[in-house]
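Sample intake sheet
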Amino acid sequence: MTTTLLPPLLVLVASLWMVPLLTVNAFTSSITSTEFSTRCALPKKGLFAKDKWDMLIDEDEDEDLQFLGGPPVPRDMKYNMYNIQRQRENYESMKAVGGKDITNDVYARDPEEETFWFVGKIARVGDVTVEKAMARLWPMIEEHSARLRPVELYPKWGKLELWVSAGDSELDVAYCKPELQFEQMFREISGVEDITKAVRSVEIGFQGELYENNEEGFRTVRSADGKAVKPEVKATSTDRQPTEAEIDEMMEVLNSQVEANSD
Protein backbone atom coordinates (compact mmCIF):
# COMPACT_ATOMS: atom_id res chain seq x y z
CA MET A 1 0.00 0.00 0.00
CA THR A 2 1.33 3.39 -0.94
CA THR A 3 1.50 6.05 1.80
CA THR A 4 1.05 9.65 0.74
CA LEU A 5 2.76 12.26 2.88
CA LEU A 6 0.94 15.58 3.27
CA PRO A 7 3.00 18.74 2.87
CA PRO A 8 3.95 20.20 6.26
CA LEU A 9 1.97 23.39 5.59
CA LEU A 10 -1.21 21.43 4.88
CA VAL A 11 -0.77 19.42 8.08
CA LEU A 12 -0.38 22.64 10.07
CA VAL A 13 -3.53 24.16 8.55
CA ALA A 14 -5.54 21.01 9.24
CA SER A 15 -4.41 20.88 12.86
CA LEU A 16 -5.29 24.53 13.44
CA TRP A 17 -8.74 23.98 11.91
CA MET A 18 -9.42 21.09 14.30
CA VAL A 19 -8.59 23.03 17.48
CA PRO A 20 -11.71 25.26 17.53
CA LEU A 21 -13.84 22.29 16.43
CA LEU A 22 -12.65 20.18 19.36
CA THR A 23 -13.14 23.13 21.71
CA VAL A 24 -16.76 23.61 20.57
CA ASN A 25 -17.45 19.89 20.93
CA ALA A 26 -16.12 19.90 24.49
CA PHE A 27 -18.11 23.03 25.29
CA THR A 28 -21.43 21.84 23.87
CA SER A 29 -21.17 18.50 25.63
CA SER A 30 -21.51 20.24 29.00
CA ILE A 31 -24.56 22.45 28.26
CA THR A 32 -27.99 22.03 26.74
CA SER A 33 -28.84 23.03 23.20
CA THR A 34 -30.91 25.94 24.51
CA GLU A 35 -28.00 27.28 26.53
CA PHE A 36 -25.70 26.94 23.56
CA SER A 37 -28.02 28.76 21.17
CA THR A 38 -28.44 31.57 23.71
CA ARG A 39 -24.82 31.95 24.72
CA CYS A 40 -23.25 31.42 21.30
CA ALA A 41 -25.72 33.15 19.01
CA LEU A 42 -24.19 35.28 16.29
CA PRO A 43 -25.01 39.01 16.21
CA LYS A 44 -28.30 39.59 14.44
CA LYS A 45 -26.89 42.25 12.16
CA GLY A 46 -23.43 40.79 11.77
CA LEU A 47 -20.32 41.90 13.59
CA PHE A 48 -19.28 44.32 10.88
CA ALA A 49 -22.72 45.49 9.79
CA LYS A 50 -23.10 49.22 9.32
CA ASP A 51 -25.83 50.06 11.84
CA LYS A 52 -26.59 52.88 14.25
CA TRP A 53 -23.89 51.73 16.67
CA ASP A 54 -21.26 52.04 13.93
CA MET A 55 -22.55 55.49 13.10
CA LEU A 56 -22.40 56.56 16.74
CA ILE A 57 -18.76 55.45 17.02
CA ASP A 58 -17.81 56.90 13.61
CA GLU A 59 -19.36 60.28 14.39
CA ASP A 60 -17.52 60.45 17.69
CA GLU A 61 -14.24 59.58 16.00
CA ASP A 62 -14.86 62.41 13.54
CA GLU A 63 -15.40 64.76 16.46
CA ASP A 64 -12.12 63.53 17.92
CA LEU A 65 -13.55 62.54 21.30
CA GLN A 66 -10.82 61.09 23.48
CA PHE A 67 -11.43 58.46 26.15
CA LEU A 68 -8.01 58.20 27.73
CA GLY A 69 -6.90 57.66 31.29
CA GLY A 70 -8.99 56.44 34.18
CA PRO A 71 -9.09 52.93 35.69
CA PRO A 72 -8.18 49.99 33.41
CA VAL A 73 -11.15 48.76 31.38
CA PRO A 74 -11.71 44.98 31.21
CA ARG A 75 -11.46 43.63 27.69
CA ASP A 76 -15.12 42.54 27.65
CA MET A 77 -16.27 46.06 28.60
CA LYS A 78 -14.29 48.01 26.03
CA TYR A 79 -16.50 50.13 23.78
CA ASN A 80 -16.32 48.20 20.52
CA MET A 81 -18.88 46.61 18.20
CA TYR A 82 -18.34 43.05 19.45
CA ASN A 83 -18.90 43.91 23.12
CA ILE A 84 -21.77 46.29 22.38
CA GLN A 85 -23.69 43.75 20.33
CA ARG A 86 -23.03 40.94 22.78
CA GLN A 87 -24.37 43.01 25.67
CA ARG A 88 -27.41 44.05 23.64
CA GLU A 89 -28.20 40.41 22.87
CA ASN A 90 -27.67 39.47 26.51
CA TYR A 91 -30.21 42.09 27.50
CA GLU A 92 -32.80 40.96 24.97
CA SER A 93 -32.42 37.28 25.91
CA MET A 94 -32.65 37.94 29.64
CA LYS A 95 -35.67 40.21 29.38
CA ALA A 96 -37.47 37.73 27.13
CA VAL A 97 -37.20 35.15 29.91
CA GLY A 98 -37.33 37.22 33.12
CA GLY A 99 -39.43 40.19 32.04
CA LYS A 100 -38.95 43.77 33.18
CA ASP A 101 -38.51 42.73 36.83
CA ILE A 102 -34.86 41.86 36.13
CA THR A 103 -34.24 45.12 34.25
CA ASN A 104 -33.54 48.73 35.14
CA ASP A 105 -33.57 51.98 33.20
CA VAL A 106 -30.28 53.89 33.36
CA TYR A 107 -29.76 57.65 33.51
CA ALA A 108 -26.54 59.67 33.47
CA ARG A 109 -25.92 63.20 34.63
CA ASP A 110 -23.28 65.83 35.06
CA PRO A 111 -22.83 66.08 38.86
CA GLU A 112 -23.19 69.85 38.61
CA GLU A 113 -26.50 69.74 36.73
CA GLU A 114 -30.07 68.71 37.58
CA THR A 115 -30.77 67.06 34.23
CA PHE A 116 -30.77 63.26 34.12
CA TRP A 117 -30.33 61.83 30.60
CA PHE A 118 -31.82 58.45 29.73
CA VAL A 119 -28.94 56.39 28.28
CA GLY A 120 -30.21 52.80 28.16
CA LYS A 121 -31.35 49.72 30.04
CA ILE A 122 -29.64 46.86 31.86
CA ALA A 123 -30.66 43.31 32.73
CA ARG A 124 -29.17 40.80 35.13
CA VAL A 125 -29.68 37.17 36.10
CA GLY A 126 -29.19 34.91 39.11
CA ASP A 127 -28.09 36.57 42.31
CA VAL A 128 -26.49 39.54 40.54
CA THR A 129 -27.72 42.73 42.19
CA VAL A 130 -28.34 45.93 40.27
CA GLU A 131 -25.38 47.48 42.11
CA LYS A 132 -23.03 44.73 40.94
CA ALA A 133 -24.41 44.79 37.42
CA MET A 134 -23.87 48.54 37.13
CA ALA A 135 -20.36 48.34 38.59
CA ARG A 136 -19.47 45.66 36.04
CA LEU A 137 -20.97 47.58 33.12
CA TRP A 138 -19.75 50.99 34.29
CA PRO A 139 -16.99 51.59 31.70
CA MET A 140 -19.27 50.76 28.77
CA ILE A 141 -22.26 52.71 30.07
CA GLU A 142 -20.27 55.80 31.00
CA GLU A 143 -18.56 55.96 27.63
CA HIS A 144 -21.85 55.36 25.84
CA SER A 145 -23.39 58.23 27.81
CA ALA A 146 -20.57 60.57 26.81
CA ARG A 147 -20.86 59.53 23.15
CA LEU A 148 -24.65 59.86 23.18
CA ARG A 149 -24.54 63.37 24.65
CA PRO A 150 -21.13 64.77 23.66
CA VAL A 151 -22.05 68.36 24.53
CA GLU A 152 -23.69 67.79 27.90
CA LEU A 153 -21.91 64.69 29.26
CA TYR A 154 -18.59 64.17 27.49
CA PRO A 155 -16.83 67.05 29.32
CA LYS A 156 -17.49 65.20 32.60
CA TRP A 157 -16.53 61.74 31.35
CA GLY A 158 -14.79 59.94 34.19
CA LYS A 159 -16.85 61.87 36.74
CA LEU A 160 -20.36 61.19 35.49
CA GLU A 161 -23.05 59.97 37.86
CA LEU A 162 -25.11 56.93 36.87
CA TRP A 163 -28.56 56.35 38.30
CA VAL A 164 -31.20 53.66 37.82
CA SER A 165 -34.96 53.44 38.02
CA ALA A 166 -37.38 50.55 37.67
CA GLY A 167 -37.38 48.78 34.32
CA ASP A 168 -39.55 50.30 31.59
CA SER A 169 -40.56 53.20 33.82
CA GLU A 170 -40.13 56.00 31.28
CA LEU A 171 -43.84 56.82 31.33
CA ASP A 172 -43.89 57.12 35.13
CA VAL A 173 -40.81 59.34 34.91
CA ALA A 174 -42.53 61.53 32.32
CA TYR A 175 -45.59 61.76 34.57
CA CYS A 176 -43.32 62.73 37.49
CA LYS A 177 -44.77 60.02 39.70
CA PRO A 178 -43.67 60.97 43.25
CA GLU A 179 -43.25 57.34 44.33
CA LEU A 180 -40.65 56.73 41.62
CA GLN A 181 -37.22 57.65 42.96
CA PHE A 182 -33.95 57.15 41.12
CA GLU A 183 -31.14 55.31 42.89
CA GLN A 184 -27.52 56.33 42.45
CA MET A 185 -25.02 53.66 41.46
CA PHE A 186 -21.26 53.58 41.99
CA ARG A 187 -18.24 52.32 40.09
CA GLU A 188 -16.90 50.46 43.12
CA ILE A 189 -18.76 48.32 45.64
CA SER A 190 -17.70 47.91 49.25
CA GLY A 191 -16.43 44.40 49.93
CA VAL A 192 -15.91 43.53 46.24
CA GLU A 193 -12.24 43.68 45.27
CA ASP A 194 -12.56 42.50 41.67
CA ILE A 195 -15.97 42.99 40.05
CA THR A 196 -14.88 41.02 36.98
CA LYS A 197 -14.60 37.91 39.15
CA ALA A 198 -17.81 38.61 41.06
CA VAL A 199 -19.94 39.04 37.93
CA ARG A 200 -19.46 37.32 34.59
CA SER A 201 -20.27 39.22 31.41
CA VAL A 202 -22.86 36.57 30.44
CA GLU A 203 -24.84 37.36 33.61
CA ILE A 204 -25.57 40.96 32.60
CA GLY A 205 -26.80 42.86 29.58
CA PHE A 206 -26.89 46.46 28.40
CA GLN A 207 -29.04 47.98 25.69
CA GLY A 208 -27.85 51.50 25.03
CA GLU A 209 -30.16 54.29 23.95
CA LEU A 210 -29.84 55.40 20.31
CA TYR A 211 -31.41 58.38 18.61
CA GLU A 212 -33.34 58.30 15.33
CA ASN A 213 -34.51 61.10 13.06
CA ASN A 214 -32.79 63.85 15.04
CA GLU A 215 -34.40 62.91 18.34
CA GLU A 216 -33.70 65.32 21.14
CA GLY A 217 -33.30 62.56 23.71
CA PHE A 218 -35.36 61.88 26.80
CA ARG A 219 -34.27 63.62 29.99
CA THR A 220 -35.80 64.61 33.28
CA VAL A 221 -35.07 67.07 36.07
CA ARG A 222 -34.54 65.44 39.45
CA SER A 223 -33.38 66.47 42.89
CA ALA A 224 -30.02 65.44 44.30
CA ASP A 225 -31.64 62.37 45.85
CA GLY A 226 -33.32 61.28 42.62
CA LYS A 227 -36.86 62.53 43.30
CA ALA A 228 -39.10 64.28 40.80
CA VAL A 229 -38.91 68.07 40.96
CA LYS A 230 -41.98 68.86 38.91
CA PRO A 231 -45.51 68.17 40.23
CA GLU A 232 -47.14 64.96 39.10
CA VAL A 233 -48.82 65.00 35.70
CA LYS A 234 -52.29 63.56 36.08
CA ALA A 235 -53.58 61.30 33.33
CA THR A 236 -56.67 62.65 31.61
CA SER A 237 -58.28 59.22 31.55
CA THR A 238 -57.82 55.92 33.33
CA ASP A 239 -59.67 53.96 30.66
CA ARG A 240 -56.72 53.63 28.33
CA GLN A 241 -52.98 54.02 28.00
CA PRO A 242 -51.74 57.07 26.06
CA THR A 243 -50.78 56.53 22.44
CA GLU A 244 -47.18 56.79 21.24
CA ALA A 245 -48.00 60.12 19.62
CA GLU A 246 -49.38 61.44 22.91
CA ILE A 247 -46.30 60.22 24.76
CA ASP A 248 -44.03 61.89 22.20
CA GLU A 249 -45.95 65.15 22.56
CA MET A 250 -45.69 64.97 26.34
CA MET A 251 -41.96 64.27 26.09
CA GLU A 252 -41.51 67.38 23.94
CA VAL A 253 -43.33 69.50 26.50
CA LEU A 254 -41.26 68.13 29.37
CA ASN A 255 -38.02 68.55 27.44
CA SER A 256 -38.91 72.15 26.61
CA GLN A 257 -39.52 72.76 30.32
CA VAL A 258 -36.08 71.34 31.08
CA GLU A 259 -34.48 73.67 28.55
CA ALA A 260 -36.38 76.65 29.97
CA ASN A 261 -35.23 75.83 33.50
CA SER A 262 -31.62 75.43 32.40
CA ASP A 263 -31.71 78.89 30.82
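Comment: Confidence is low (pLDDT under 50) at residues 1-6, 8-50. The two ends are 90 Å apart (CA to CA).
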